[in-house]
Specification:
This protein is 68% helix and 3% strand. By secondary structure, it is mainly alpha-helical. It has one domain. Strand 1 and strand 2 form a beta hairpin.
C-alpha cells in the first residue's frame, strides 16, 4: 500500500490516500490482539466443555479474517452506498431478529441466536451499526426537508427494535441502541425540554427492567453484593487482575480461564489482565479511546449533518460496547454478556463491529468537489 502513488487514480489508490489510515491501523491492531487473546483464553474453555482445544481458535481466525475484509470492502463505498447498505442491512437484521422469537436458539433463557452451520448468528448485533446510519439519514433528511417526517419515522423503527430486543430479552443491547439513538437525536437538535424528558424516561426504563426481568435483578444484586455466592464470575475476574499486577504472569500462565465459563468472550479482558498485566490492559483501553476520539475529531469541520450523526452513532455504539465489557470485567457496573470488539470470541460480533467500522472509515474519508455524495 505505501507504494501507491498519489497520482494513482484507481479505486484502491484513491481509497488509500483518502481513508483515515490511523484509525485503520488501530482497527488492525485490535484484530491482532484478538488473535493473541484467543490463543491465550480459548483452549482451556474448549477443553472444559469437551471440545477440541483449537476449535475456538480456528473459528475466530476465520471470523477475524472476514472482519478485516469487511472493514476494507465497506470503507471503499461512497456515503450514498453506505446509506443503501445500512437500509438493506437494517431491513434484513430486523426480519432475522424477529425470526429469533420463533425459530431462534434458546440459551440461558434468551432467544437471540439463529443456528447456522459452523456458527450461531445474532442478528441484533447488525442492527446497531445499520440503525445508527438509517436513523442519521432520517433525522438529517427531516431537518433538510420539513415535508419528510424523518424523526417520527426513526422513532417508529426504534420502537420496533426496542420491542424485539425486550422480547428476546436482550436488555444490554437495548440499552446501547437506546443510548446511541438518544445521542443522535440530541446532536440533531432535540429540544432541551425533550432531552430532560428522555433522560427521565431512560431512568424509568432502567427501573422497570430491574423490576420486570429476573436476570437483570440478579445481576444488579451481584454488583451491589459481590460477596454473595452467586457473584462468582466478577469476583474471579477481579482476582485475575490482582494476580496479573503490572506486567502479568506471562502468556499461558493465567488460571482464570480454567474457571470462568466465558473467559474467551465476556471476560477476555480479565484474561488479558492476568496474563499480560495492567500495562497491556491500559494499551487496549487506549486503542479503543483513540478510535472513538479520532472518529469524533474527524467531524469537527464536517458540514454534512448525515455524516456527523452517522459517525457519532457508530463511534458511540463502538465505545459503549467496549466500555460495558471492560467495566463489567472490572466490577464497575453489573455484568452484561457483551463482547469486547474484535477481541472477544464471536462471529456475529466481529462481523457486525467490522461493518460499523467500515462504515465509519467510508464516511470520514477525505472528499473533494465532484466526489460521490
Amino acid at each position: 500500500m505505501p507504494g501507491l502513488s498519489r497520482a494513482d487514480n484507481s479505486t484502491l489508490g484513491r481509497w488509500w490516500w483518502t481513508v483515515d489510515r490511523w484509525t485503520l491501523g488501530a482497527i488492525g491492531t485490535l484484530i491482532g490482539v484478538g488473535y493473541i487473546m484467543m490463543l491465550a483464553a480459548s483452549p482451556a474453555v474448549a477443553e472444559r466443555i469437551g471440545q477440541s482445544r483449537d476449535i475456538f481458535i480456528l473459528k475466530q481466525v476465520v471470523f477475524l479474517a472476514l472482519a478485516g475484509g469487511v472493514v476494507v470492502c465497506v470503507s471503499l463505498l461512497s456515503p450514498r452506498g453506505i446509506r443503501r447498505l445500512a437500509l438493506a442491512g437494517c431491513i434484513v437484521a430486523l426480519a432475522l431478529t424477529a425470526a429469533t422469537l420463533v425459530v431462534g436458539m434458546e440459551i440461558k433463557g434468551a432467544r437471540r441466536w439463529i443456528s447456522l452451520p459452523g456458527m450461531s448468528l445474532q442478528p441484533s448485533e447488525f442492527l446497531k451499526p445499520c440503525f445508527a446510519v438509517v436513523a442519521a439519514w432520517m433525522i438529517s433528511e427531516g431537518r433538510r426537508s420539513p415535508r419528510f417526517y424523518g424523526i417520527p419515522m426513526a422513532v417508529s423503527i426504534f420502537a420496533v427494535i426496542a420491542f424485539l430486543l425486550k422480547s428476546q430479552p436482550d436488555i444490554g443491547m437495548l440499552a446501547v441502541v437506546t443510548s446511541v439513538f438518544f445521542i443522535q437525536l440530541y446532536i440533531g437538535g432535540l429540544n432541551v425540554f425533550l432531552v430532560g424528558i428522555g433522560t427521565l424516561g431512560l431512568g424509568g426504563a432502567a427501573a422497570a427492567a430491574y423490576l420486570l426481568f429476573p436476570h437483570v435483578q440478579m445481576r444488579v444484586q451481584k454488583f451491589l453484593h459481590p460477596t454473595i455466592e452467586s457473584a462468582y464470575q466478577p469476583t474471579m475476574a477481579l482476582e485475575a487482575f490482582g494476580n496479573g499486577g503490572l506486567l502479568g504472569r506471562g502468556p499461558g500462565e493465567g488460571s482464570v480461564k480454567d474457571h470462568l465459563p466465558d473467559a474467551h468472550a465476556d471476560f477476555v479482558y480479565a484474561v488479558a489482565g492476568e496474563e499480560f498485566g495492567l500495562l497491556i490492559c491500559l494499551a487496549i483501553l487506549g486503542i479503543f479511546a483513540f478510535i472513538v476520539l479520532r472518529g469524533l475529531l474527524r467531524l469537527v469541520r464536517e458540514q454534512d449533518l448525515f455524516i456527523v450523526l452517522a459517525c457519532t452513532g457508530l463511534v458511540a455504539g463502538f465505545g459503549l460496547q467496549a466500555f460495558v465489557n471492560m467495566a463489567s470485567s472490572l466490577a464497575l457496573i453489573p455484568t452484561k454478556g457483551m463482547t469486547l470488539p474484535f477481541i472477544s470470541y464471536g462471529g456475529s460480533s466481529a462481523l457486525a463491529v467490522a461493518l460499523g467500522m467500515g462504515m465509519l472509515l467510508a464516511l470520514t474519508r477525505r472528499r473533494h468537489h465532484g466526489d460521490a455524495p
